[in-house]
Structures are given as C-alpha cells and as structure tokens.
C-alpha cells in the first residue's frame, strides 16, 4: 500500500509540473518584450526634422517659441540634449577614437521641443505735472501702460500759499522742479517775458496786480543761419531777447532757456514754446500762459 501511494504522488506531481511548464510557454508566446524606441519624439510640443544627413543641425523655432530639449539619431543611437542645435557624438565604429578611420556618424533626424515664450510684462510709467494759481498749487499724475494712458489724471499732492504779499515757491516729492506762485498774485504788476527755446521767436506781456495778462508783442527770428537778438523798449520796460545757442545749427537742439522748466499751455511744439501771431488769439494764449512765467522786467 505504501508503494502505491508513493507512485501516485510522483505521478500527480509530474502532471502538475507539466501543466505549469505549458502555461509558462503559452504566456511567453503572447507576452513578447516591447520593442525599444528607434526614433525621436514627434507631435505635441515636439517638431521632428527628417533627412538631415549631416553631423550637425540648427533648428530655427517659429516666432513666439524657444527650444527646450532636443533629440537626434545618428546610426542606431538616440541622443538627448537641449537647445536648438544638435551635433553628432556617435562614432562610426567600435574602438574609437583610438581606432583607424574613426568619424562621427551623420544625423539622420532630430526633434526639438517647442516652449511658448512668456508674454512680456507691459511697460508702466507715471507722468507728473503741476499747476498753480493765486490760491495754491496742485500736482497731478497720469498712469501709462505701453505708452497708452490708463484712466484719467488724479491729484497726488497740493498746497496753498501763505504770504499774500510775496510770490512764493513750493516743492513736491513727485517732481524735481520748483512750483512757482504765478506773477501778479502778490499785488505786483509789470512786464514779464520769456525766452523762447525752440528757435522760433520771442514774446512778452503785461501782468496787472490781479493776475490779468495782456500780450504786448511777439516776434520770430528771420535768419536761420545766424543767432539773432531783439531789443524792446517802452514805457516801463527795456530788455533784449537773445536767440538760444544752437539755433543756427539745424542738427542741434538747443537747451531750453525759459525761466521755468514747465512749459505754458497749450503744449510746446517742436521742442519749445509755440509762437502765436494770429491777431486776437495772442491775448487768449497769453492769459493761459501766465502761470508758467516769472521773470519780471523793470
């Protein structure tokens, strides 16, 4: 009885081993190893360039993109790197570089990863301007983004004058130039003038004790090749206007010589004060310009 049990056990074990071996062979037949990648990536963020047949290649990405990683194939070897240029480092035979006839294999194809450029930050800046009357002064600001105004101007600083009998000055942290109380605010009256820095001409006017302005005279230079001067004399005034240095050289922009750094309204034309010689328009412009003048001619 004991011998039969041993034989039966051996037989049963052999059958099980046979079935297990058959199962392994069957599974192996259907689970073949995955083939290795033999080309560089293509599609998605990658651009593949075929038919290179050279030892190096530089890729020119489209506008708005830069190259991140790269891949190239030389012979049967794939090589990964980064940047828009690939250069073969794959030898053409074993034993290189010490063997004879060593050379780098040509690149058959290459792929480049395209990375979108980031949108540049907009250029932002703020311009400051000031204005003054006999009550006080105000500094305004205007924001810009890429040269275009954002919203309207707004007040950032302001103040009042303290002494009604003296023309005063003020300063603000937002601007470097000095803020002047307009002529005529201290009850004075007289002739005030300004040199014109844009090489066009000159002007002067009368300011009474209440700040009212009357344009007296304005003129233009006549000789573009010579620095000129004009002397004006009258009841209560005598002074000479000198054409600024550089006005006789068409390639040089002269340095402004007006008493104030801030130009009067309307805005300056051609780098200096606009000349207004059209009849009644002179009086209107002079009234607007008084806040930008300070030199008194006695």
Which sheet architecture does the biggest sheet show? 4 strands, antiparallel
Q: What is the 3D form?
A: elongated
Task: Report strand order across the widest sheet.
Answer: 1-6-3-4
Order of helices and strands: HEEEEEEEEEEEEEEEEHE
- Assembly type: single chain
Number of strands: 17
**Number of individual domains:** 3
Which blocks of ≥5 consecutive residues have pLDDT under 50? 6-11, 23-36, 256-298
Helix content: 10-25%
Task: Tell me what the structure shows.
This protein is mainly β. It folds into three domains: 46-116, no CATH class; 121-181, no CATH class; 185-298, no CATH class. Helix content is 13%, strand content 37%. The chain has helices at residues 2-30, 281-289, and strands at 46-54, 56-58, 65-74, 77-82, 85-87, 107-116, 124-132, 136-145, 148-160, 169-170, 179-180, 190-194, 201-207, 213-220, 229-234, 237-242, 296-297. The chain is elongated and about 105 Å long. The protein starts with a helix and ends with a strand. The model is unreliable at 6-11, 23-36 and 256-298 (pLDDT under 50).
């Amino acid at each position: 009885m004991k011998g039969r049990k041993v034989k039966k056990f051996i037989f049963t074990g052999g059958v099980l081993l046979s079935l297990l071996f058959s199962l392994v062979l069957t599974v192996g037949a259907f689970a073949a190893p995955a083939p290795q990648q033999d080309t560089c990536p293509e599609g998605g963020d990658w651009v593949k360039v075929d038919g290179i047949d050279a030892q190096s290649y530089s890729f020119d990405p489209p506008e708005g993109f830069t190259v991140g990683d790269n891949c190239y194939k030389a012979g049967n070897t794939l090589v990964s790197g980064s940047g828009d240029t690939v250069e073969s480092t794959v030898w053409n035979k074993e034993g290189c570089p010490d063997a004879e006839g060593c050379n780098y294999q040509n690149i058959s194809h290459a792929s480049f990863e395209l990375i979108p450029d980031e949108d540049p930050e907009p250029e932002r800046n703020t311009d400051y301007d000031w204005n003054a009357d006999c009550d006080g002064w105000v500094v305004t600001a205007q924001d810009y983004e890429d040269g275009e105004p954002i919203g309207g101007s707004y007040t950032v600083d302001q103040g009042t004058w303290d002494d009604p009998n003296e023309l005063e000055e003020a300063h603000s942290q937002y601007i470097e130039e000095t803020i002047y109380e307009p002529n005529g605010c201290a009850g004075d009256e007289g002739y005030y003038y300004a040199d014109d820095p844009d090489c066009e001409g000159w002007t002067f006017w009368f300011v009474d004790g209440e700040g009212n302005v009357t344009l007296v005279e304005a003129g233009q230079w006549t000789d573009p090749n010579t620095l000129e001067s004009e002397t004006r004399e009258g009841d209560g005034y005598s002074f000479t206007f000198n054409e600024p240095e550089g006005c006789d050289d068409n390639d040089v922009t002269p340095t402004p010589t007006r008493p104030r750094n801030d130009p009067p309204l309307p805005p300056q034309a051609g780098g200096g004060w606009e000349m207004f010689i059209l009849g009644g328009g002179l009086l209107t412009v002079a009234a607007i310009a008084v806040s930008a003048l300070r030199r008194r001619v006695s």
